[in-house]
UniProtKB/TrEMBL annotation:
It comes from Actinoalloteichus hymeniacidonis. It holds the Pfam family GTP_EFTU. It comes from the Bacteria. This is Peptide chain release factor 3. The keyword Transferase does not apply.
Length: 540
């Protein structure tokens, strides 16, 4: 740490070149998939390769196995789904992999969208029998919006599924992403013999172990050896691979980086087939952290003093301590635990004595971090999603994260008026964490805010949290609004407030106009064609 004064965020030339070297080793990504495609299994398999966890199932936590990733919330345990996000960091050879977990339930997606603001690459995980499913499509939209390069892993090839060509066609037709298979299955889904490695023409063979064994035996062969021992399926795979080359499906790195084309691998997460290949691909192809643009459009160079932005805030991870953790992605410089940084929104100093690496229930103290890494800042009660932290000078502010267009609205009130104070504190907390968006208006009054959510399950999480953490039972009254627009001019509020529409103010100051349906909105626009209404950013 020579020459680096953490308190001042000063860096010497040596530190700068170290930061550049460390950033170049980082690969920060998330898996996007529909529930049940095998994300937990894949995460587990990736982590096992790097041997960060000793036992299969330690990440996953389903079926009575020990859970590590994200089963801290009671509700999550009961449902066996992952609602919270965590970051898993592990070394793979000389590379440092940061895998950001994304909540998988189709209803609870706002959190997932935000996680995608903190990654440099995504792995799109498809179930071979199902192809592109609704949640995958939604998440892919966010990747497209943010220009995030995507690697595709077609999973569950060990059991009957759809044809490889059909799946590739679906990717190019439905999401206009050109598939570039790097491996090609030998034997159809369910009768899988292995893959043809399209980069060197060799065969990676796959033999199921004895029943019950969770790993396949993998054997590599040259093309000639495979032609001899595999037979017809090998020949067919070879022909298909040639056809792919003719039809322009070969790897093009620039198109991948431009998010126009996706490398595709076929495998089986549960049998650990194709998983090492995926890791190698991440090392080889996934972009390393690059300078992040700030609000003024300039880019904060990687070697500039420490800066980071908060992409997630979470409370109650550790019941015993009831603390709040803000997860921030490092954008520049070196982070040293203990350094005092500035909170850009308030201009106040923020001490980082308790920085941690948080992965589900496991926490470890984090001493040093570099661009691409995620730091968990404990007791960060002033930090909000989207906030910037920085060290030294000049000040930097990164653009805030988009709030997604809510589709579900409900008034909320404490059942017991005697708990009004706890209710107010609890609502503030949930708003700060972004569990739900909170809307208010003078007309409705402070005591009955409105919860707005992208998916209805956010209401359940909010209800559960208010009950368990603040001892407040709430009464939710669902409102019939389905359409939301941002009101450009607050003076036009009176044109909208009525029976089938009203204007409410969100915590970030945005004035949101809610309508019961499109017809109401259209009628209003016909009557007042000049009223300024915009669609919400990132309204996926
Ligand atoms: P998710 O996190 O995306 O929701 O999926 P998860 O990993 O929980 O996997 C969903 C189910 O699919 C699990 O079965 C898992 O074992 C299975 N699975 C994952 N990858 C593969 C694969 O490559 N091949 C096959 N055949 N199955 C796979 P489950 O019965 O729901 O749970 P479990 O009790 O087996 O854990």
């Amino acid at each position: 740490m020579a020459g680096n004064d953490p308190a001042l965020g000063r860096q010497t030339k040596n530190d700068e070149s170290q930061v550049i070297r460390e950033a170049a080793r980082r690969r920060t990504f998330a898996v996007i998939s529909h529930p049940d495609a095998g994300k937990s299994t894949l995460t587990e398999a990736l982590a096992l390769h790097a041997q960060v966890i000793s036992e299969a199932g330690a990440v996953h936590g389903k079926g009575g196995r020990k859970g590590v990733v994200s089963d801290w919330l009671e509700m999550e345990k009961a449902r066996g789904i992952s609602i919270t996000s965590a970051a898993l960091q592990f070394a793979y050879g000389d590379t440092v992999i940061n895998l950001l977990d994304t909540p998988g339930h189709s209803d609870f997606s706002e959190d997932t969208y935000r996680v995608l603001a903190a990654v440099d690459c995504a792995v799109m995980l498809l179930d071979a029998a199902k192809g592109l499913e609704p949640q995958t499509l939604k998440l892919f939209d966010v990747c497209r919006h943010r220009n995030i390069p995507v690697i595709t892993f077609v999973n569950k090839w060990d059991r009957p599924g759809r044809g490889a060509l059909e799946l590739c066609d679906e990717i190019s037709e439905r999401i206009s992403l050109r598939p570039m298979p790097l491996t090609w299955p030998v034997g159809e889904a369910g009768a899988f013999k292995g893959v043809l490695d399209r980069t060197d023409g060799g065969f990676i063979g796959f033999t199921r172990n004895a029943a019950g064994a969770s790993r396949a035996t993998i054997q590599t062969m040259t093309a000639d050896e495979a032609a001899e021992s595999v037979g017809e399926e090998w020949e067919q795979a070879g022909e298909e691979s040639e056809l792919l080359s003719i039809s322009g499906a070969d790897m093009d790195y620039d198109e991948f980086l431009d998010a126009k084309a996706t490398p595709v691998l076929f495998g089986s997460a549960v049998l650990n087939f194709g998983v090492k290949h995926l890791l190698d691909l991440l090392v080889e192809l996934a972009p390393r952290p690059t300078p992040r643009p700030d609000v003024d459009g300039g880019a904060r160079s990687l070697e500039a003093p420490f800066s980071a932005f908060v992409f997630k805030v979470q409370t109650g991870m550790d019941r015993a301590h009831r603390d709040q953790v803000a997860f921030a992605r490092v954008c520049s410089g070196r982070f040293d635990r203990g350094m005092v940084v500035t909170h850009a929104a308030s201009g106040r100093p923020f001490a980082t004595k308790y920085a941690q690496q948080v992965f589900g229930q496991q926490r470890s103290t984090l001493d040093v971090a570099y661009p691409g890494d995620v730091i968990g800042l404990v007791n960060a009660s002033n930090l909000r999603v989207g906030d910037t932290l920085y060290a030294g000078k000049p000040k930097v502010t990164f653009p805030g994260l988009p709030s997604f267009a809510p589709r579900h609205f409900a008034t909320v009130a404490a059942k017991d008026p005697g708990r009004a104070k706890q209710f107010r504190r609890g609502v503030e907390q949930l708003e700060q964490e972004g569990v739900v968006q909170v809307l208010r208006s003078d007309r409705r009054g402070e005591a009955t805010p409105i919860f707005a959510a992208v998916g209805p399950m956010q209401f359940e999480v909010a209800t559960d949290r208010l009950q368990n953490e603040f001892g407040v039972t709430i009464l939710l009254n669902h409102l019939p609004y389905t359409v939301v627009r941002r009101l450009g001019d607050p003076n036009e509020r009176k044109l909208i407030d009525g029976h089938s529409s009203e204007v409410l103010t969100r915590g970030d100051g945005a004035e949101l106009a809610l309508f019961t349906d499109d017809i109401t909105l259209r009628l209003l626009l016909r009557k007042h064609p000049d009223v300024k209404l915009e669609s919400l950013a990132g309204g996926v």
